[in-house]
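Quick entry, no commentary yet.
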Amino acid sequence: LAGVLLAIPVLVAGLLVVGALVLLWRAFCEFYVAVFRLSDDLHALRLQSEADAAAAARRPPAPPLG
């Protein structure tokens, strides 16, 4: 009887620990994906910035107003 009474709280505590570890694993995976998405976004912004700079360098200067 004492073993059964001890097993139930241990089982509940074990399930809570497993649930917490699953949430930590999911958070780690979400962070990992977010880092790579951010990297892709920064790469696209850098390419766009370089393309804008190249287009501005090829454009002739505007004539002075006046």
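second:
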Amino acid sequence: MAVLVELVNVHGHRLYVSTDYIRRLEPRGENPPTTLVSYSSGAGENTFEVVGLVDDVADWLNEQMR
């Protein structure tokens, strides 16, 4: 089931995106650990970097969709 989630990056910027539009997660930085979230939009595909390990972000997204 799709839900609207709030993603927050290291600078405190927020993005609200439906889980239906999230296409992939990629590990990005190491200190602090960050994950690149790729999502589709009307203009193609965009990315947003959030704090957390890729496994933790994936688990959180899965939990939100329950």
